[in-house]
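Supplementary Note 2. Why include the ligand at all?

Several targets in our set were suspected to adopt different conformations when bound, so apo predictions alone were not considered sufficient. For every target with a known small-molecule partner we therefore ran a joint prediction. The input for zinc ion is given below.
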Amino acid sequence: MKQKNLRILAIESSCDETSAAIIEGSDSPVIKSNIIASQIDLHKITGGVVPEVAARAHCEAIIPVIEQSLAPLEIELFGKKSDQTIRNVLPYIDAIAVTVGPGLVGSLLVGVETAKALAFAGGKPLIPVNHLEGHIFAAMQQVLNSKPEALLRQAQDGEQSRTINSKQTSNLKVQNSKQFEKLDISKLNIVSNLEFRISNLLPAIALLVSGGHTELVLIKDMFDYEIIGQTLDDAAGEAFDKVASLLGLEYPGGPAISALAEEFVKNSKSQTPRLPSTWHVGQVNSKQIKSLKLQTSNLELASNLEFRTSSFKLPRPMLKSGDLNFSFSGLKTAVVNLVKQLESNRDGISSQTHLGGGGAKRDLLRGEKQAIAYEFQEAVAEVLVEKSYQAYQKLSTMNYKLSTILLTGGVSANKRLRQSFKERFGDKLLISPVELCGDNAGMIGLAAFYRYKKQIINNKSQISNKFQIQNSKPILKSIIYNLKSAFPWKAVDVDPNLEL
Ligand code: KG4
Ligand code: ZN
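The joint prediction is reproduced in token form.
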């Protein structure tokens, strides 16, 4: 059964990236283009996103970005790029997908209204996508593109722990390797290869960490999501940004903190650790050794820089809270206090000191900043990985046979976090490729592709989205109702119970 090629133009504008992408394929969606116009330079001035500024920047960028994303297709179809790219290429697009929330309302509106206009002008179906679902699909990207034969062979050889559920086995009838050799892969289209590949990953837990979100999501079945843990205050990315700003680093803070932490590790390696005489190495357990390594490195730096703090150990908030929630504002406050303490240390190296209005203050030394960045990053990574592991254990006791842990969102670009998740979850882990970690339309198109295909395969007229987002914004609900009334004749409809 040969499946029809599907080509989607996807648009994302939920925060401070204006992005458009082309996603194409018959069964394996491929991101053909993924243009991202970042507003970082604008927000550096204010040290964070100002919603009004972001919305205006989206207005300026949206059409050129869409045009750029369509340019390769125009060249493929017509041999050259024209100055009428959108008009020329729109007839060759099957559907338009757009992020409808959560996000900044002014920013979202730019993408949604543009998508509506294009869908209306071209007579195309419109696929509304939840931003968080987009991030989840970014983490599944490598599986969406893999060959089903490879997955089957692995399952067959017992090389991976993913469970094939009864629905799949009854379709596949591949219980032993002999049968597998005779298997006609095209028969898998009974369910669709794509659906097989996705359901093979479920149930799953996704940790979604970005500037606006820190959420543990249980994916029971595709489109059946439950948020099982979330931050009670700041998102992890927000904490990175705030701590970076405290250390005098530019927005966005995540990459800057990560770079400083790496400098710290490099410096520590190049120095011989020296233990304080009061510590008895023979008596410490492995956990303490871990913290000992950190402390000795700090002390080594301290011996050069004359730190006045006895230790740079920061708290691991909510690690033992018994639930699956997070909190990062206390961690940020701990850094504020540490920085204040260091700055008020008047015995610092004299050339670095200056007199402020309220008394002597000195600038933080580079070594101090490196040590703080390192310890902060360790604290965030430890909390995120251990809470995810607690979720895994908790769900396992509730008889969920979890197949996959997904790590996604802007913060999942962090090297240390990726490394600790790999160590903790091994081959059960799927991480978003670095180029899809931050906000981008490619991931929105991947989610839309699957939704659209599912609708065709199962002949469903409804797209449902069960993400329960707190503080739902009525204005977004009205956008959805507008969409519904603007396109009553379209094949792709919107669930009236959509929660945004
Ligand atoms: O997903 P994203 O692009 O936008 C939101 O939906 O928020 O995430 C942006 C966040 C920012 O807070 C940024 O500092 C953080 O992701 N980030 C990182 C890294 N790269 C980006 N955080 C830690 N380490 C990184 N390497
Ligand atoms: Zn995001």
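Residues 15, 210-212, 237, 240-241, 252-255, 258, 409-411, 413-414, 438-439 surround KG4 (ligand 1) (CB under 6 Å). The domain at 232-402 is CATH 3.30.420 (Nucleotidyltransferase; domain 5). Comparable summaries for the other entries are listed in the accompanying table.
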